[in-house]
Every structure is written in C-alpha cells, then in structure tokens.
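Convert to structure. Protein one:
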Amino acid sequence: MMGMMKQAVSRPGAMLARRVTLAGSALLAFTVMSVSAVLSSGAALAAEPQRPVLSSIELGGSVLPHGIVGADGAEPTVWFSAARRSAIGEIDVATRSVGYIALGHGARPRALTRCPNGKLYALDPALNVIHEITSATEEVVRHPMPDGHTADLSGATCTAGNLLVFTGYNGWVGTLDTASGKVSLSEAVTGRGPASIALSSGGAVWFAAYASNQIVRVDPVSMRQDAFAMPTGVEGPKGMVVDSTGRVWVTAYRSGRIARFDPRRRSWDAWSLGEGARPFALTLDAAGTVIVSDVGRDKLVRFDAATGSGTVIASLSERGQARAVTRLGDQIWISETAVDRIRIIDTSVPPSN
C-alpha cells in the first residue's frame, strides 16, 4: 500500500487538463422553512470510567493536522490533511507508520473526504482549489474555483455517484464532477458562513452555516436549498453528521449544546453538555451512537439521546483542539490540530472497574 515516509511528486501541469465552469444563477432555488424547538437543559457529563486511549501518533512539529478520513479493507488506511507540510498524511493502520503525499508549494489543506472512486479530495482555502489525490500513485490534480471566486473552502462530502459537494465560508455551495473535473458554484441561501457538511444514507446533503445559525438541505443535482433556523439559545453550528434514520446531529459550539433535527417533523431537540463545553466535531460509532469532541474540556464524549446525557469515553490532549474525528471499525481516530497528534480510541473496549 505505502512505504514508510513516502513523499509524492506533485504534478502542477495536471490542473490545465481539467475543465472548470461556473454554474448559472438558475441553479439557485430555495425556500426558508420555520421549525419548532424542544430544548432540554441536560446534565453535566456522566462520571463513568473512561475507555482507554489505544495509542497516540506523534507527528512532530509543523504539521497542523485537520481533516481526517479512513478506509477499511485489506490494508486499512487513515489520511489526514497536514496544512503546514503542504501535504496529505497517510497512516498504515497496522504498523502506524506515517507517510506524506506532497500537494505542492503553498498548499494549506484543511477539510478532507474520500469518494467511492477511492480518491481523496482536500479543500485548500489558501490556494482556493480542491486537491484530487490518487494515493496509490501519489498523483495530485488541482481544481481551482471558477471565475476567480474566493470561496474560503470549508467542508466537503461525496455522493454515491462520485459527485463532490462542498461549501465555501464566503457564502458558497458547490459541486465537483469528479469524472469530468467540472466545478460549479452557487450562492448559499444563508450568505456568509457555510462550513461543515454531511451526507445522509438516502443521498441528501446538509451543511451548517455558522454565521447565520442555520442548517441547510441541498439537492446536489438541482442545487435547491432549504434552510432551517437553529432553535433560540442553540448557537454556533460546527460539526454535523446524519444518522441512519435521516436525523441531522449538529454541535452548537457557542452555546455548549448538541442538537438534533428531524427533517420529517421539522422539529429540533437540544441538550446541554454542561458548563464549559465547546462541542466541535461529530461522528457515529459502530452502533450508530453520536461521538463528539469537546474542545472546551478536552474530552471525547458519547452522547445518549435516550437519557439526554453524555459520557466521557476518553480524555484528550490539553488544549489539543480536536477539530476532526472519523470512525474506522470500532476505532475513533481524532485529529488534534494544536498539538500535532493523532489519537486512536477503541470504543469496543468495555469500561474498566
């Protein structure tokens, strides 16, 4: 799969072979929907035994890991964006060896996703491009934003048909046709603030708009957008994930809450995670339970909606800024941006006595 500490050769000329166009304004069609909210004050995190941290991977200085994504299979692999190295990091799960694929001078990758075609896509707000990475060959193709629009690229997800849907914090939502290389942009109904993005099992795309305190459902074909306001007192949507029933889970960073939106009922539930909580990234464990990183208290929390309570399953690095999490089997992989560290936690291990 990969050799220890491999270094790729970026191919700057490849970007010329890609076709980039701007979507017409006719793609912008939206409705703004009102919702009801059911709030729960919640309780402080449950004081239960912590699950063990399997291991930490020390990346050394000047890496700045951010987005993280994994792939199971014969040779399980985890990739992460390495902004200060202008690269994508690649971890062999079996040996924990780390290699890097260079993205070229000036690259500062942040959000990272993997499409069904097996390729990686890294969003680079510094260069205003999306990097397409073929890890097996270390080939890198750059897809620039059309017409010089500065998108401030934020989040990305990929549909089953290999259509990359992405957000730009400057008020954009867009698509990259991974087959043709065509990039299209549409104005976001929320204006400034589109950030994290998630895909439901049914193919619906959702993004969180931090600045306007909304979440938005997007039809990735027509680019129709339906916006839903966050409940009063539930502010600062950051992380986002969609469960198997289609309900959308969102971290409310500014108010220290976790919220859940039911699209069928168009209703909200929200719970407090306690004083000092700053929930950030979200994922689902193997059982479909929400796992959230709390950067305010440096904890990894499992949230039980049935009881409205969170249980600490691991303590993270002090001020580590765990801004991205992903699941690989029973393991949760965490990117600790501020301390150049990757944490791995096994959620299948029962609590110790």
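Protein two, convert as well:
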Amino acid sequence: MSSALVAAILAVLTLPSEWAQPGYGPGATYYNPGETRLTAATVGTAVERWAIKTHDAPDCEVGREPLAAYGKVFSSDPGGVGAYDPVTGQLRWHAPLSRRGVTRMAVSGGSLVTLTYACDTTASFLTAFRTSDGARQWEIPVGGLAQDMVVDRGVVVVDTRPDFALATTGYRLTDGTQLWQLTGTRGDGLLSSGGRLLLRTEKQGTRVVSVADGTTVWEKPRNWYAVGSDPAGTRFYIGGSGTGLAAVDAATGTVLWSSDQPAPNVTADDRHVYVPRQRTMICLDARTGKRLWAVHLGDGAGQPVSAGGLLYSPAGIDEPLSVVDVRTGRPVRTAKIPSTQNYAPMVAGGRLFVTDGDRLRAYF
C-alpha cells in the first residue's frame, strides 16, 4: 500500500465528527464522513437528553439549524445566538442580536459567522463571534436583503439584493473586508464544490466562479442551479428548468450523468445520492445515477442526512424520523423521534440533533 493511500485513509479515520455549516460543510453534502459513534449498533438506544428554545418574538425571530464544532453546539436562541454543551445542553455563552432574525450560521477558523436580518427594516448584516467565548469580532452591513451564505477557504460569500438587484459578494473571514463582488448573479443554493461556486445569471445562464476571488472558471448557456455536491468537491449535482437531476464536473461543466428525477435538493456520500421525492426517499448510484433502492415515508420527504452508515430522513410535521441502512434501505430500529420536513437533522459526535424551528432536541 502506497504512503499516499495510507495517509488518505488515516485522514478519514481521524476526521472529527463535526457539522460546521448547514449541510455539514461548504459543499452542502449533508453527509458526515467522520461520524463513527452513532451507528446501526448504537442508534437504537438513543433517547432525548435535553432541549432548548431556538427563538423568541415569533413576529421577528425564527429558529435555525444547529451546528457542532469546537466541542460546542451552536444554535439560534431567544434574542440572539448561543453556544451549548453537547452533553448537557447547558449554555456556554450567549451573543445578543437585538431585533434581528438569523438567516444562516457557519463555523470556520475559530469564528461563528451569522447572516442576520433586521426585524424592522430591510437591512442585513454579517457578524463574526469568537467560538470560544462569544466575543464579537466584527460586523458589517451587507446592503439590502440577503438570503444565503457559505464559508470556504477563508471567504464568506453572500447572495444579496442591494436595491433589489442581484449580487454575489465575497468577504474576508478574518475581518469582513470585501474581496470581490459580482452583479447580476445569484446562487439559488449557494454552496462550494472544491472552492467553486455555481451561480445563475440574469440571462438564464450558468457561471462557475472561484470562491477566492470571484473569477470565472467556466460558463454555459444553461439554466442550472446547484442542489448539492460530492464529498470530494469534484462535481456539482444540479437541477434546472425542464431537466432532472444531473452530475456535472465542477472543474469543466461536463455532464457526467443525468436522470429524470426532479431534485430540489439531494444528499451525497461517497457512493450514493439520495433524492427526496414526495413521500419517497430514492437512492441513486453516485457513479451512474441509476436507481438502487427507495423507501416510502409517512409524509412529504425532507432533507436527509447520511452519517455512520445510516440515512436519516425527516418527513411531514411530527412524523417519526426514518432511519435506514445506506447500503440497502432497510429500516433500523430506533426510538420514536419526531421530525419535520422543513429542518434537516444533524448528526455529530455520536449525537443526533433535531429541531422543529421552535426547540432543539438532542438524542444519544
């Protein structure tokens, strides 16, 4: 066995089980490759251990998906954002965001970055807090409505609507300095595949740009949008007007395979692509796009999560969370865990976290 292969295997084996951005990382794969503790052998004993409120003032604030990194769970909470002990749920620190709602959160480089909106105006803000103690590091207005954010390679990228136009802007993670801006583009699923962003243009085309400086990598006259990426950061999974799910080479734009499955969102691990479709969760072969298996759910399928050899699929409102083996689709016995199709679960550090937008619950 070559030394390079050994190093690659060791890197995977020592990968921390964290969840630093919505969808796990900048690629929004919804796959945690570092999870080894919550598996088919242990998930059956998981029970609710703690719960917290995720927002206050329902006329303004909304609950967001949690994150897990640096030994903490980060969540929106009443009046701002907070860091919590993953074992006990006890508050480690709270950062106030008066009359603000949280749109997105991401953890990178020792900072918790939040994209927030003002409850009483159309203003949006980027704010960075130190993950260790919640101290505010910097804050900038991003101008007008902002709907999405991703952090990769030391750059915070935001989709904004200054003066109700379209713009995609990159800011330096360490201090919020603007690095680049593109006008007439939007992400419609802002994610990074190997440091590349797939953007839609005003002329119904597709432009892939570098997250580092916004320079164009390739363009095509196709109305594509990214619904996911692979864990290696080599491909985009895309949807588009009048087309089904397709796999596209992130470096060149070459279509690797396509299917007739409509897919507003997907989950992707190294071997599979999971597609929620009405009341069904469909598993495709990541190499070919061919259907491997499908699981019927009790209600409308939400965003699934792959971790520890298991696929967690939320459905409907308060329907039990579906848990199946990723290889076969066969159910795995668990306690009855309520879920909602509007919020993906999070699996990190041997723990399962679910939210309904009002409360965050931890199971282990």
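The longest strand covers residues 100-108. Residues 3-13 form the longest helix (11 residues).
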